[in-house]
Amino acid sequence: MAQPQLQLPKGIIGIAAIAIIALIFLSKSTVTIGSGEAGVLYKTFGGGVVTDEPPLGEGFHIVAPWNKVYVYEVRKQELFEKMKVLSSNGLDIQLDASAWFKPRYNDLGKLHQEIGENYIQRIILPTIRSAARSVVGRYTPEQLYSSKRDAIQVEIYEETKKIIGNQYLELDEILIRDVTLPSTIKEAIERKLKQEQESLEYEFRLVTADKEAQKQRIEAQGKADANKILSASLTDKILQDKGIEATLKLAESPNSKVIVVGGGEDGLPLILGNN
User: Domain Band: where (predicted)?
Assistant: First the structure.
């Protein structure tokens, strides 16, 4: 005996079909832009990439299902790169550098249209490498090792920014994290720097000793001049007066003594003690 078949009303089938189509349509028509991101809208039947309007910001968006949205990170990003470059005398130098960059927000559509999503490989990396080769090639290994690291950092940044700024990108900073020289060159530079330091210390000691000797000569000359002036100013009358002043002070002492006024050969008092 045949089992009766369950038949759904045609209206319910139609509603279900419409709901499924609407669900598919909706899933294809929505996009969520995450934190620190922005979306570039591509209109399939409306002129392609939208460049004359701001990109889609963070949050939920509904777009036509035949259009596309390309999502870009627009917060500050860091790119770390190890590069081998040549110094001014042709030696291999390894440079470790970091670049801080981000896409220019309002030009995101132009960036997508003219360069594309892989703009880091197409623009930023080649530009940094080219700038690094150009800048490092102006300096000797000794300059790179000791005094010029900050200078090359600034120069690489300026040369990179000049190109990247015209490509809808913002370059915030380039940091030189390490400069690695061949071991033999590094050791030779360190020996030279040590010798220069020792030479500077020796020169400093010589200068210090010379200044001390000059100081002592000046002090001795000052004392000699003072004694000369004092000797020239002392007369017999002054000496007698000084002797009398000293005698009076001694006379006030409680120790017993005998004072003979005018007993000395120069007319000064004689002081005779009790012993």
Answer: 28-193
Residues 20, 26: Cα–Cα separation, whole Å: 10
Distance CA 135, CA 154 (A): 10
Q: What token pair was written down for 147?
A: 């005094």
The owner of tokens 């100081």 is 215
- Determine the CATH number of domain 77-181: 3.30.479.30
Question: Per-domain residue ranges for the chain?
Answer: 11-73, 77-181, 191-233, 236-273
Residue 265 tokens, joined: 């050969």
The torsion angles phi and psi of 105, rounded to 5 degrees, stand at -55, -55
Residue-by-residue pLDDT tens, the chain, 275 positions: 445 555 556 566 566 556 665 555 555 678 899 999 999 999 988 889 999 999 999 999 888 888 899 999 999 999 999 998 888 888 888 899 999 999 999 999 999 999 999 999 999 999 999 999 999 888 888 787 776 778 889 999 999 999 898 999 999 999 998 888 877 675 666 566 665 565 666 576 777 777 877 878 887 887 777 767 766 665 666 656 666 666 666 666 666 555 555 555 555 555 555 54
Burial 229-251 (b: 16+ CB within 10 A, else e): eeeeeeeeeeeeeeeeeebeeee
Maximum Cα–Cα distance for the chain, whole Å?
172
Cα separation, 95 vs 99, in Å, equals 13
Chain mean position to CA 148:
12
pTM of the model: 0.60
**DSSP letters spanning 10-21:** HHHHHHHHHHHH
Task: Name the residue with tokens 């010589």.
Answer: 206
d(CA 25, CA 39): 20
